[in-house]
User: What shape does this take?
Amino acid sequence: MKSMYLAAALAALMGSAASAETIGVSMQSFDNNFQTLLREGINARVGEVNGATVQIEDAQTDISKQLNQVNNFIAAGVDAIIMTLTDTSAAAGISEAAEKAGIPLVYLNLEPENLGKLPAKQAYVGSKETDSGKLGAEAACSLLKEKGKASDAQVYILMGDLAHQASRDRTSAFKETLAAGDCKGATIADEQSAAWTRTNAMDLTTNWITAGQPIDVVFANNDEMAIGAIQALKAAGVSMDDVIVVGIDATQDGLAAMAAGDLDATVFQNAKGQSASAVDTAVSLVRGQSVEKNVWVPFELVTPKNMADYAARN
Assistant: This one.
C-alpha cells in the first residue's frame, strides 16, 4: 500500500542533517474534534523531525480567513504548507498560488477538488471516504438483519458540511451499499446537513422525532453528529435498543458512547496516521525527496466487539 513507505521516510527524515523547515498549517476548525486530533498529531510529528517547526492557524470554517492565512504563509516565506480545506472547491486557486510561490503544499484529510491535477510538489494525505460509507452501511445492514428489519427500515442520514467531498462521498457510498445488498428494501427517509456539529445534529434529529415517523437507523457522517442524534433520541424517551446509530471517526467521545451502549458502530479514521503522513510528505517535498501524490490511510470498522483495540488510537 502506498502509505507504507512513510515509516521508512520518517526514519530518513529523523536521521538526516538538520535544516530549518518552517511549516505553515491552516486548519478548517479548531472546534471540530477530529480536526483537533489532526492538529495534535501534526504537533507531535513535527517534534520528531529534525529541524522542523510549525505554525498552526484556525480558519474557523471561513474560506476567506483560510485564503488570507495561505497568503500570509506565502508572504512570510514558509518552506511548506499543510491545510485541511474549509471549502474543497477552493483548492485549485490555492494550488496555483503555492505553485507560483514555489512552496510545497500538502492537503490533509479533506480531499481537494483538483486531486487529479495537483501540480508538482503538491500531494494529498487522507482516507478514501467512500470506504467509510460502505463500512457504515454494511454494519447498519447487519444489525437490521438481526432485528428483522432489513426489508422495511426507515433510515435517516446526518451529513457533514456540503462543501466537503468527504460528506458527499460518505453519504453516497452509504446509500449505494445499502441499496445493493440485503437491505435494499430500506428507505432513506431524509438526509440533511448538520455541518459536522453535535448541536445541529441534535436539532435535526429532534425535528425527525417530532414528525412522528419511525426511525430505525441514523447514519452520521461523523461521531459528533451521531452523538447529537443520540442525545435527541434519549431526550425524547426513545430506547436506544430500538434505533441503530452509526458514526465515523472513532473519537474518544464516540467510543464512550459505544461503551454506554448508545453508538452501535463507527468507522475508525486514523488521525495520527494522517497527520504524521502529512508532515512526513511536506518535509520530504521541501528536501527534494520523492513522495506519493496520494497517500491513503485505511478506514477500519469499529464495533462493541473490537472497540477496546481503538481506545488509544485517536
Q: What stands out?
A: The first helix runs from residue 5 to 15. Confidence is low (pLDDT under 50) at residues 1-18. The first strand starts at residue 21 and ends at 27.
